[in-house]
Amino acid sequence: MDHHGHKHEIRLHDPLPHSNTTVDISKLSPEEKWRVEHQQMHEKHRGHEAMHAEMVLILILSIFVAQVALVQWKKLHFRSYQLATLVAMMLIPVGISLSHQWWRFIISWLIFSLITGFVTFRATRQPLDGSTPRLVYKWFYLLYKISYGLGIVGYIAVMLTLLGMNVLFRAKPTTWMDFGFLCLYYGLYYGVVSRDLAEICTDKMAAKVGYYTTTGLPARHLEAGICSVCGNQLLVSPQNNDEAIIEQTFQLGCGHVYPLNHKWQK
How far apart are CA 238 and CA 260, in angstroms? Predict the structure, then answer.
């Protein structure tokens, strides 16, 4: 209190009281509180500039070394790299979501894990059922389409927000940005995880149908008119796709043929 009975105010451009002076923060305005806290932070970290520079250099070096190590790991031991990264992507996000109670991601993760787990289980059975390759293709192709669509929607939402289009709909920019980044995250996450799982399933199926083995010679011979994936009889030949009703037949460069549904082709 001064001599006129007015409260003493700390202006933004005035120096702060000496460190030995006690300031009642509860009586300050929000701007004055922010200034006091900001000045206290600078006082606390005064003389630490060299340490902060070293921390930044260590961070940059660590990122560079980790990137080189990951690339070499992937090149030399792809299977272990794929398994480790897949386990990390499956468990770390859901663990963080559980700790923060982000139920939307947890529910979507559970649905994805249950269905994908069933498809993966079918793909690793011996003997392999003839309908399993088509089931695997349908499921992971659906995931690809959903992930791709989410990415496009998220990108459009972010760009429209940056252009100020949200004002036309009387929506807050934070709402549109949150929606856009959420779609981008879901599309990227499930797209990457489903890609790795699809590679594992296709490798397992290719080894089990007998036309491919990691070591040695194949156990079966591919006959003409037989699908090289599921072993079922082909409905049409690649030369007669115009007559196809349910599915067309396509031939790879290696000479193997397989059926493909019209909708999948599009």
Answer: 11
